[in-house]
Design brief:
Blueprint (H helix, E strand, L loop, with lengths): L11 E5 L2 E8 L2 E8 L11 H15 L15 H11 L7 E2 H8 L3 H9 L12 E2 L16 H12 L17
Helix pairs in contact: 3-4
Length: 176
């Protein structure tokens, strides 16, 4: 495989139904998972943790009930980690709003949204299960309704069985 611009920062790149997933490791731990557009080519794992992450991400793409067990590098502020722990408790096929999580944590919806956008471990910490009160909301710090990132969020929610999910405050599905 030839080296692709930007791929050198990843310890592995695997194909994903929506493009690719970049895997970064550091000091024997997973440092980051990154949603990548389809033009990224696969890259073989450069270390054992990258291999473990690649296998587990691929298993999740096959089975939405798969549970990750990866050594994560510590990341985020204390508040962000509280938000991420709360998100991890959302069952597959379910969603919560930024406001619901904010109320639970005695915080503000915008702060919860910012913590979601700062998530270093998407899929492992399923921030795609958090929506706005009036619709899908943003994803990976993007709110372009027709953009790549929200397309991933829609795919992940469908994959997890939220296809028929209706928001209680609106008559149309979050899926176009």
């Amino acid at each position: 495989m030839s080296t692709q611009q930007g791929s050198e920062i990843f310890s592995a790149i695997i194909a994903a139904p929506f493009g690719a997933m970049g895997i970064r490791t550091e000091d024997g731990r997973l440092r980051e998972l990154v949603y990548l557009p389809p033009h990224y080519h696969e890259k073989s794992a450069q270390d054992a943790v990258a291999e473990q992450a690649a296998v587990q991400v691929a298993r999740y793409f096959e089975d939405p009930d798969f549970r990750f067990d990866l050594p994560l590098k510590e990341a985020g502020s204390e508040f962000q980690r509280r938000v991420w722990d709360t998100i991890c408790a959302i069952p597959r096929g379910s969603v919560r709003t930024y406001g619901q999580i904010a109320k639970q944590l005695e915080s503000a919806p915008r702060a919860v949204g910012q913590a979601c956008g700062a998530n270093w471990f998407p899929l492992v910490i399923p921030c795609h299960r958090v929506t706005a009160s009036g619709g899908l909301g943003g994803f990976s710090s993007s709110d372009d309704e027709h953009g790549f990132q929200l397309g991933i969020k829609r795919w992940l929610l469908r994959h997890e069985g939220a296809l028929a999910l209706e928001m209680p405050w609106q008559q149309q599905s979050i899926f176009p």
